[in-house]
Design goal:
By secondary structure, the chain is of the alpha/beta class. The protein has six helices and eight strands. It has a six-stranded mixed sheet, sandwiched between helices. A two-stranded parallel sheet has the order 1-7. Strand 2, helix 2 and strand 3 form a beta-alpha-beta unit. The radius of gyration is 17 Å and the shape is globular.
Length: 171
């Protein structure tokens, strides 16, 4: 199964643009090139760039790709948040990364969401606890799709499931 990333980008960006955001950053993790999902990151970045460009916001695009070096991650986030062209919203590929960004923003005296809006993915309990929007990829749908996919392997024809995510707006 896979997550409908185009739907995810469309939902998030149309919501943010409708709220007046023009400087939108996308933060994603560097992926191990040996992993099966190695094309996921490139697909997400391409869809983000395409959606921003289609909305006439190519000048407002910021993309930050991060590895595992904690000090570099922290420095990259701080640099982005103190830039004269600081984004008004950061959309991260995970709720966990949103927590790191939120912590840095608060240390710098930025108000959440007054100065910086945050959007994550996976709708973890953190998203609700800290009041930031998040894309929900409902666990039940993922489990059902995984089971159906496994069951289809027993048959002649393999079934491929696309899961449509849902943006849960908070803050």
């Amino acid at each position: 199964f896979c997550i409908d990333r185009q739907s995810m980008m469309d939902q998030v960006l149309s919501h943010l643009i409708s709220k007046g955001h023009r400087k939108i950053a996308y933060v994603t993790n560097k992926q191990n090139p040996d992993r099966i999902y190695r094309g996921q990151q490139a697909e997400e970045i391409a869809k983000f760039t395409l959606a921003m460009t289609a909305s006439g916001l190519s000048d407002g695009i910021t993309i930050l790709t991060q590895g595992k070096d904690r000090k570099k991650i922290s420095a990259d986030i701080k640099s982005m948040l103190t830039s004269p062209n600081r984004p008004t919203v950061i959309f991260s590929a995970s709720d966990f990364r949103v927590l790191e960004i939120r912590e840095q923003a608060l240390r710098l005296g930025l108000g959440i969401p007054e100065d910086l809006a945050l959007v994550g993915v996976f709708n973890t309990p953190w998203a609700e606890q800290y009041g930031f929007s998040s894309v929900s990829v409902e666990p039940e749908k993922m489990v059902n799709a995984a089971v159906a996919s496994l069951n289809s392997r027993k048959k002649e024809r393999r079934v491929f499931h696309v899961i449509k995510p849902l943006l849960l707006v908070r803050g």
